[in-house]
Specification:
- By secondary structure, this protein is of the alpha/beta class.
- The strands form seven sheets. Strands 3-2-1-7-19 form a five-stranded parallel sheet, with helices on one face. Strands 9-16-10-11-12 form a five-stranded parallel sheet. Strands 22-23-26-25-24 form a five-stranded antiparallel sheet, sandwiched between helices.
- It starts with 5 loop residues before the first strand and ends with a helix.
- The structure holds flavin-adenine dinucleotide.
- The site of flavin-adenine dinucleotide has 35 residues, from helix 1, strand 2 and strand 22.
Amino acid sequence: MSQAPRVVIVGASLAGLRTAEAVLALLPDARVTLAGAEAHAPYNRPPLSKEALERMITQPGVGPALEKLVLRSRLGADALSLRPGLTASGVDTEKRLVRFTDGSGLAYDWLVAATGLRPRRLPFTTAPDHRFVLRTLDDALALAARLASPQRVIVAGGGFIGCEIAATLTHLGHRVSLVEPLPNPMQQALGPRVAAAMAGFHRARGVDLHLGRSLADLHQTDTGCRVVLDDGTMLQADLMVEAIGSVPNVEWLSDAGLDLSDGVLCDNAMLAVGAEAILGVGDVARFPNPLFGGAPRRVEHWCVPGQTARRAAETVAARVAGTAPAPVFAPLPSFWSDQHGMRLQSFGAPALADETLVIDGDLAGLGTRPCLVEYRRAGRMIGLLGLGAAPSALVAHRQRLDTALLQAAHEHTPQENAGV
Ligand SMILES: Cc1cc2nc3c(=O)[nH]c(=O)nc-3n(C[C@H](O)[C@H](O)[C@H](O)COP(=O)(O)OP(=O)(O)OC[C@H]3O[C@@H](n4cnc5c(N)ncnc54)[C@H](O)[C@@H]3O)c2cc1C
């Protein structure tokens, strides 16, 4: 292969852009194409359920919305070929060619899958004009356009995005009912104890929670929709937002011989397992992290696109140079969430814990004073959560977490670390 490889990145969002930057930092001569289905320049998604949604509702207009969301990049305008509005439909791994829905194709030496996720939908066909999702800027604009005056809103799903939407809309004076099948919101991510406290936190701020309930039926009404829950409860609303999880965008890779059972299965170097010269990055990538035992997992946090982008670029640069990338990639996951003016900040993997310890503050006082929670698995620290806590209050505990996770990683066998 020449020293100026053709790198085609499919998916022009956070992971795609950061991969382009990382590849060009290591291989300045690389010919990088960043092709994405959306018509917009790469932009930041987290504000779409928080302050940007609020702004779009209170100060409508696509210009200002995109301006504030656009991802800043250190790349010059002509450093790469940015191709918005281009949707990949297939890959010919023999010819090393990506095909697009407009009939065009791009040859690659290295192909990076950065196609992220799309919202999972409820299995109803009724009330299509009153059902919304929130993944893209266009989704947010469509939702905001319906919220100019106070509305009754059902949020289906009590994960982070559902809870953030519920908090944002309640704050703006909309009447929000949130339906979640588990006993408490965000339970899988935060564990039952913290999730129960978050339920009280949302209720106290006006969100009508229907926990342990799922949607059995959906009807269109004259003014919106009516939801029937599995216990027979009926909820009338003007509109519903479906926030019931996501599906990886992998169909375009279906002929590439990859394991696409939950995103793109990658090894620890971010190389897709089963194909030459294909890598996965960001939300769509399922990869082993030795910090957590080496089982491949997808992680839907904002930090992961940047971390996996750098790793993928190092892998490409090492292969181009005929060397091997650093042996182990062990990124520390972290995420934040803003709900009713309180910031949640998490490090590590609270979802894998079997024990929850409040190490500072108290869960009963959420939103009024800071609270710190330590998560353990088999007696060892595996995660840290700050609720309304200043970043400085987390520093010392983060160091303890880093130490505990690194110790655990060293104890895993190299085979486990390979993870596949
Ligand atoms: C509303 C919302 C709020 C969030 N809030 C937080 C938060 O507070 N904290 C946090 O840590 N994380 C948050 N996240 C998660 C974070 O935004 C994601 O982890 C991050 O956007 C993932 O980036 P990505 O580039 O991997 O995927 P995406 O951002 O999903 O980008 C994938 C891109 O690929 C494109 N694409 C898909 N298929 C094709 C195809 N066939 N051809 C071409 N292009 C294609 C898509 O159109 C999209 O532009 C939030 C996400 C959302 C949606």
